[in-house]
Amino acid sequence: MAKKKGESTSTTLEAHSRAKVELFKEYLATYLNILLHAKHIDHLKFFDLCAGEGVYTDGQKGSPVVIMETIKDHYFSNKKRCLPIDVFLNDPGMSKVEPGKKKIERVEEAVNKLYRPTGVNVHFSSQNYTEILEHAKAHVLTLKSNERAIVFIDPWGYKDIKPEDLNLLMLNHRTEVLLFMPTADMHRFADKSLSDDQFPGGLPLRRLLQSLFGTDAPDSSSSLAFAESLLKQFRNLSGIKFADKFTLERGTNRFFCLYFFTSNILGLEKMIEAKWKMDEQQGRGFKLKPAVPSLFDGFQFNTEYPELLEAEIKNKGSMTNHELKEFGLLNGFLPKHTRELLKQWKDKGILGVEALDDLPVKDFYIPSTDRRVSIKFK
C-alpha cells in the first residue's frame, strides 16, 4: 500500500530526529524564560503541526512530549510560575507503532500522563497539513501586542511548503517559525525537476524552487551547498527579518535542515546559542560521527568567518560593537566568537577601539546594549 501524506514508516526516532528535538528543547527552554521576564508579554501560542507518534518503540520522545516536559520543567524551575500557554498538537497520520490507532491519539495519551501547570491548555487535532496551517495562520495573524507564537513545521516531505505561507506567519513580527526540510532528498532531484517538465513527481519541488529562486537555480554542487542556497533565498523573502539553519546528518553526505525564522535579534541569538551548545566545534549541526575533539579548548575558526568579518570592517571603514554583534549572529557566530577574533587582531596591533560615549575603553563590548564603541583596522 502506498504511503499517505502524514504517514511515516519509522517506529523509532532516528538519531538525526533526536538531535532535531533536542535542539528545539534547548531553544524552547530559553524562549520560555525570556517571555516570563519580558514586560507586557502574557500569553504564548504554540503550534506543532505534524506532531508524530509522541513516544516511539525505542522509548524516545517526539516533539509534543518534549514540548510539554519543557513547559513543566520551566514551571517548577521558576517557582511554579508560567505564562498562560495554548499548545496546539496536530498530526493526520495513522500510527505505525500501534496499527489501527491515530498518531494524535498516542500523542494525547502520552501528554495526558504529564503534569500540566494551570493556565497551560492543550488542543489535539488530526487535520491535514494545509488545514492546520490555515488554522495556525488565523491565530498568528490576530496576535495582540501582549501575545507571542511559535510554529513548528515538520511535514512529511515538502510538497505543501510555500514561501508565501512563511511570509504570512511572520507578518506581525510576533512569531517564531521552525521548519524542517529533507534537503538531501530535495537536492537529489532539484536539477531534474527544473530541467524536465515531464519528470514524474517533480512538479511540487519545481514550484517550490521557482517560488524561491525565480528564473535562477539553487547551488546543487553538494547537499550542504543546496541547503545553504535555500537559506539565502529564505532570507530574501519580504516577511523574513532573520533566518538561520541547523544541519542534521541522516547518512553519509545526507544532510537535512531545520530552518529558523524570527523577527527578533534576541530570538536569533538564542537559537544560535542552542546550536553551539549541541555542536561546540562549529555551531553548524548534528553529525552521526562527532568530530575528533580538538587539542585546543573551545571552537576553532575553520570557516570563512574571519575573512568575512575582516572584509566587512574594512569595507565599512569602522563598525560599532552593536553592528559587529549582529553581523556575527547573521553569520551563525555568537558575540564571544566575534570578540575572540577582535582580540586576536588587537593583540597583533592592527585593530583599534574608540569610545562613542566618552567613557573609558577596556573591551570591545560586543554583548553590551549600553556601551557604544567604534572598531576599525589601523
Task: Please specify the SSE layout and strand pairing.
Blueprint: H1 15-37, E1 43-48, H2 63-77, E2 85-90, H3 103-111, E3 120-125, H4 129-141, E4 147-153, H5 163-170, E5 175-181, H6 183-195, H7 203-213, H8 223-235, E6 242-251, E7 254-262, H9 265-278, E8 285-286, H10 305-316, E9 319-320, H11 321-330, H12 335-347, E10 351-355, E11 373-377
Parallel strand pairs: 1-2, 1-4, 2-3, 4-5, 6-8
Antiparallel strand pairs: 5-7, 6-7, 9-11, 10-11
Tell me about this structure.
The protein is α/β, with parallel strands linked by helices and 378 residues long. The chain folds into two domains: 15-286, Rossmann fold (3-Layer(aba) Sandwich); 305-377, Orthogonal Bundle (Arc Repressor Mutant, subunit A), CATH 1.10.10. It has helices at 15-37, 63-77, 103-111, 129-141, 163-170, 183-195, 203-213, 223-235, 265-278, 305-316, 321-330, 335-347; strands at residues 43-48, 85-90, 120-125, 147-153, 175-181, 242-251, 254-262, 285-286, 319-320, 351-355, 373-377. Helix 1 packs parallel to helix 2 (63-77) and helix 1 (15-37) packs across helix 9 (265-278). It is globular and about 70 Å long.
